[in-house]
Each structure stands twice: as structure tokens, then as C-alpha cells.
Amino acid sequence: MADQKQASKRTTMRRLGTYMKPYWFYLAASILMSLVSVSLTLYIPILTGNAIDCIVGPDKVQFEGLLRVLITMGLSIAVTGIAQWVMNVCNNKMTYSIVRDVRHDAIQKIEQLPLKYIDAHTSGEIVNHVITDVDQFADGLLMGFTQLFTSIMTILGTLIFMLTIHPGVTLVVVGITPLSLFVASFVARKTYHLFLEQSERRGEQTGIIDEMIGNQKVVQAFSKEKDILKSFDEKNESLKACSLKAIFFSSITNPATRFVNSMVYAGVGIAGAIVAIHGGMSIGQLTSFLGYANQYTKPFNEISGVITELQNAFACAGRIFALIDEEPQLPDDEDAVVLENVGGQVDIQEVSFSYQPEVPLLTDVSLHVKPGQRIAIVGPTGCGKTTLINLLMRFYDVDAGAILVEEKDIRHVTRESLRNSYGMVLQDTWLKTGTIRENICMGRPDASEEEMIEAAKLAHAHSFIKRLPQGYDTMIRENSDSLSQGQKQLLCIARVMLTHPPMLILDEATSSIDTRTEIRIQKAFHHLMEGRTSFIVAHRLSTIKEADMILVMKDGNIIEQGNHEQLLQNRGFYYELYNSQFAS
């Protein structure tokens, strides 16, 4: 288990290296400025010691030498400040450029992921990866760039300067140093998996918050507030517990390293005083040495803090890289053809499919659809109606068999041309944040004003749109309550009316519309479906009487097919379904 974690951490660091490559110039500039800043900072104690040595005693001050030292000190401090500013600019530029690239790759991967991944993970969990995990990653990365290089150079620089003053006293410092390294190593081992667990718990918490807010009406309708709060409290308590463990181990770093630092300072003070008494160094040199001892120990505090933050950053980076590394949906074949001049012939040949291998759904489904036919799909809930639609649109690929459009296997057809061949209206509406105009014209951004209004009129949406404050320029949001569910569905219908696709898929397309408007919409659909192959999923069987063929599905199989009159005469499952609507 430990080996796996170390391997995961090494993989994360290698991935981070690939993101840093384009910004090597900023990294090099940051290291250079850090070197300049540290060198001049460490030169200050030397100048301080020289200044003290210029003050020999009362009326024995070497003013000329002291002035030169003070001027040099002032210039050194000024250059140090400029170098630190340039270093911070480079670090910020590099960090947030890397974060931008990571977020871009994450969103790009989400757009490429198969629907089975989206179905298996909550939206809150995915949002947590892209927002919170990347923010945590950025904070740790910025601290690492800003402090890690400077701290390491400070340690090396102070050792070099101390060796030039007195190697013997320097050995006292080096002898106590392993204690700080031991503390840093101990914290690093303990905190990585704790911060990883904290990140996972935070993702679960974000998921339940997202679900609760998005479905608050349902929660209140079923009086589930207490149950939701209880579930949230459990997640919250779990997050608190792992966060406390992570913070506990990270918080022992500072006091432990400060204790070691005090030991170093005391050791230098005692050893240096003994050496100075015996004439081994001047008072100014002892002052410089104590300054170096103080500067030498400070980076260990910073490095310990940086290591803690980096563990958190690596844990979050590992999660976001895991998302980026998810297997995307299979790309289009290199020789994939583009569907053109689609007439509407569809063949389903012995298709089998299941979302989970151990739970079969569709089994050996076959169907031949002629161009222009209206195919209605009916059956009880869970029989596979919507699954069949998902396969037609290639949101999922079949496990066995094949689906052909114009005698071409859709697995060897570009997804874009396949999906552009269908107009789709679902029971679940989807509107993007934008104007009414932008939502209707989503499928045809180049449509004229007249064409858009005509489509809205055919969908019986024009009248309510004109009553809105800004008409077609009214801003709406996906989950906005400014429109009823029925009005949202009318906008989705208008969107399809505008595209004039060669084939239609209507999955309970009028489920949220009142009966009077539904009758009008059905007439508009009849007009739209003329000459177009149409697949209609409906629970209200009265709406599909005029279909050329009705497929009756049960347990993933087509058990009956024919037109309305034929199926009623057969007095089979469809006959029972149809008459159950009128049962008392």
C-alpha cells in the first residue's frame, strides 16, 4: 500500500513536470532571482559584522569605513527587494498558467468522457475536482515555488558563509540539523494520505450539497429536510475527523522545528562565545554567525510548512490528474464516413446491450425502419425504451450486433454527422444560460429572425415569449423559475422545429404541456414528421395511434410490433396496456 502511494506521488510529480515545461523560462528566472535574493540577504550579516567592527569603542569609530558599509547594505537591501518582487511575479505567472492548463484539460476531458462515467459520478464530485482540488493544488504549488527554492538556497548559503567564518562552530549547526530533517520526513509521510482522504471527503460533501440545492423542491415536497441534514452531518463529521488528523500532524511541525531551531541557536551562541573568548573570532564575526544561525533555522520552519502544503497539493493534483487520465469515449474511426443526404433508413440488427454486465437489458433486438416511417416505442418503465434511443444516438455503443443508418454501421460514422441527422426532444428539458433567441437557435446559429419566429410559432411558444419583458432577448438560466416546465419544453420543441433534421426522436416530448397545447403541438409534429423517419417514445398511448409501426417492449425485448389496429386485434400485451388507461 505504501509503495502504491509513493508510486502515485512520483507519477503526480512527473505529470506536474510536463505541465511546467512550457514555462521553464519563468522557473529559471525564479531560481535566478531567488539566488540573487538569498545571496544578498546572507551578505547582510557580514556587513553588519563589519559595521560593528568599525565601532571599536568610544571615540574610536571608523566613520569612513562605516559609511561604505551602510551604503553597500542599502544597495543590497534594494536589489534584494527587486529580486523578490520579480521572483514572485514569475512564480505567480507560472503557477496560474499551470492551473489554467490543468483546468482546461479537465474540462476538455469531461467533454470527451463517455456518458457512463458521468452517470457513475455525481456532478458535485466532478465540480469539486475542477474547482476545489485545483484551487488547493494552486495554493500548494505557489507556496512551493515561492518558499521551497528560497529556503533550500538559504540553508546552503548560510552553511557556506558560516564555513568561511569558523568551520568548527559550523559543525555544531550541522550536527543538530538531522533533527529538523527527521521532523519534516515524519510529517510528510503522515500527512499525504490524510490530505488525500480529506480531498475525497470534501468531494462527497460537495456532491450532496449540489444534489440538495438542485432538488430542494423535491426535498421539501417529501419533507426530507431532516434526513438530508442527517446525511450531510454524517459527511460533515467524517470530513471534520480526517481534517483534524491532517491538521494535527501538520501543526506539530512548527513547534517541533522551532524547538530544534532554539537548540541550534543556543549551541551556536555557547560555542561561538567560547571561540571568541579565546580570540578565534571577533565580536562582529560572532554577531554575523548568530545572524546566520537564525537565518539557517528559519527555512526549516518554512520547508516543513511547504511540505505540508505540498502533500495537500499532490493529493488534490492526483485526483484531478486521475480525472484527466480517464479513458475518453472511443474516437471516430480514421476512415469514419460523414452521413450525407440521409433518407431515414435505420436497421437494428440483433442488438444486445447492458449498462452493467451482470444485469442484461436489451437482448437480440432487431428492426428494419423504412425512410419516412413513424416508429412508436411503448412498454412499462425500465423495459429499455430510452436505452434504445441512447443507442440510436450513439451515446452508448452496443455490446453486440449493429445499428445501421443508410446501410452504414454508426460505429464507422462520425458522431457529429450522426447526431446532426436527428432532432431530439426529451422529457427532461435543457436550456443554457443565455437569451431565448440563443436557446432556440442553438442548432442553427445562422438562422434568420423570420425563421426563428416561424419555428417558435409552430411550437406555440411565440405568444408567451412576446409576453416576456425583453421578448426573444430575455435572459434565462437552466434552473430558472421564470419559465414553467411546459414553457421550457416548448422552447426545446422550437429548437428542433428550426433545424429541420432528416430524422426525429421524441421521448415524451409533450409530457409537461397542457392537453389543449399538446393537441396543437401534435399537429405541428405531424407536419414536421412528414417524410421524416421518427422515433416516438410515449406512455400515453392515445398520442401514437397514427404511428406506422408500434414496438411493444418488455424486459429488453420487442415482444410485439404492428400498427395500432393490428395490435389491438392481437389482444396481447399492447391490448392490455392500451385498455389499462381507461380502466376504472
Any overview of this molecule?
- By secondary structure, the chain is α/β, with parallel strands linked by helices.
- It has two domains: 236 residues, Up-down Bundle (ABC transporter transmembrane region fold); 235 residues, P-loop containing nucleotide triphosphate hydrolases (Rossmann fold, 3-Layer(aba) Sandwich), CATH 3.40.50.300.
- It contains 19 helices and twelve strands.
CATH fold-type name of the largest domain: ABC transporter transmembrane region fold
Supply the CATH architecture of the largest domain.
Answer: Up-down Bundle
N- and C-termini, Cα separation: 63 Å
Mean pLDDT over the full residue set? 79
Task: Compute the number of helices.
Answer: 19
User: Tally of extended strands?
Assistant: 12
Summing up helix and strand content along with how strands pair, one would put the structural category as alpha/beta
Strand content: 5-15%
Number of domains: 2
- Unreliable residue runs: none
Looking at the structure, what is the overall shape? elongated
Strand line-up in the sheet with most strands: 6-9-10-3-11-12
- The CATH superfamily of the largest domain turns out to be ABC transporter type 1, transmembrane domain
The main sheet comes to: 6 strands, mixed
Percent in helix: 55-70%
- How many whole angstroms does the radius of gyration measure? 36 Å
Briefly, what CATH class of the largest domain? Mainly Alpha
